[in-house]
Amino acid sequence: MAIKDQVDAIKSQFYVANDETVEAEEATAENDANGENQALEEQFKQLLSQYKAQRAEIAAAQAKEQADNLARKQAILEQMKAMAEGETDGVMANLQHMRELQAEWKTIGEVDAPHVQEIRKAYQRYQEQFYDLVKINIELRDLDFKKNLEMKTLLCEAAERLQSNPNVVEAARALQRLHDEWAEIGPVARELREDLWNRFKEASTVINKKHQAYFDEIHAKEQENLEKKRAIIEQMKAINEPIINGEPLRSKDYEEATEKVHALQNEWRKIGFAPKKFNQSIYDEYRAECDRFFAEKKEFYQGLRERRKEHEQRHKEYLERQKAREERAKEREERRQEFIAKGGDTLRKMHERLKQDIKTAENNILFFTAKTKGADKLVASMQKKIDELKKELADIEKKMDE
């Protein structure tokens, strides 16, 4: 574009010179010279076309760039308009953004002429409206600072009163609510912020230290509870050890062990919580030892009941056999009585008679002496008779037994 005037001048000079050459050629009628002149004109037109093409390309690029610049500036204007027509409360938050938009505006190149005045006026208008809002906001902010100072001072006083609350958990929860309120209240004047915050923070620190000490004590107690529960588990393991090792235990052993287990269970119930990360695992271990003991005890007593049932069955069978023997004895007695009724009394009488005969014979044999004639024969004869009576008596007794 910078050489446009120079190109136009060259173009004008070329065609003036070309016209003079044509007139001279017509006067001389030199055909060869005329042909050369046409060739030069054709070459000149080609060069001129290349120039025009390049200029058109540059013009199109400039038009596109100006259109892009216009679009960018219009986008900035839309943002400036939104901030200039927005609420007063948010204007200070937008101040930095407004400055960034102004800086970006300066980096954007030219736009096409018809839009220059329009966007420049809009840019100035929105700037003025926005900074009017900034001024109003500053005045309102000063009022807010005063109001926020009053509210945050009340929160400091409330936090300081909480220091005397004996319930540290309740005090800590109340302090958290105060912190939530503090976060919702806007800022105060810059020169007061640090001192006011330090006052609130110091009151909070006192409460937080008490709260921490309280939970340190709880954690220590939980650790102590954990050790107590571990000790109970070790005692449970000691009770279960003979069972696991298969040592023979009696019912009395299980009764004594059950009393110990119940005592340990009562002690466990009185112990508070262990640390949270151990609470479930320590309970599961304890529960496993209890379950192991009671499962083995159940199995032992089940076996004991089975053995007792077996013993009762054998005793029942013994009683049945005893009853059968008694019934057989009764039957024999009935047969004996029947026997006696039918002839047994005769055997008894014969038994008594034979006993009397033997006694008489034994008494008589004592009266025989050596002076008695034939005493030896008589004694021998009497002794033979006695032996025969005794044999007969034995036969009678055998029959009676049968």
Please tell me about this protein's structure:
The chain has 402 residues and is mainly α. It has four domains: 4-141; 142-214, no CATH class; 220-305; 343-401. The protein has helices spanning 4-28, 31-84, 91-107, 113-162, 168-184, 190-244, 251-270, 276-364, 375-401. Helix 3 (91-107) packs antiparallel against helix 4 (113-162) and helix 5 (168-184) packs antiparallel against helix 6 (190-244). The mean pLDDT is 85.
Q: Key terms for this structure?
A:
402 residues, mainly alpha, 4 domains, 9 helices, 88% helix
Concise description?
The chain is mainly α. The chain has helices spanning 4-28, 31-84, 91-107, 113-162, 168-184, 190-244, 251-270, 276-364, 375-401.
Major beta sheet, specifics? none
Separation of the first and last Cα atoms: 163 Å
Overall strand count: 0
Structural class: mainly alpha
Order of helices and strands: HHHHHHHHH
Radius of gyration: 68 Å
Q: What fraction of residues sit in β-strands?
A: under 5%
Structurally, the number of domains stands at 4
Low-confidence stretches: none
Q: Output the number of helix runs.
A: 9
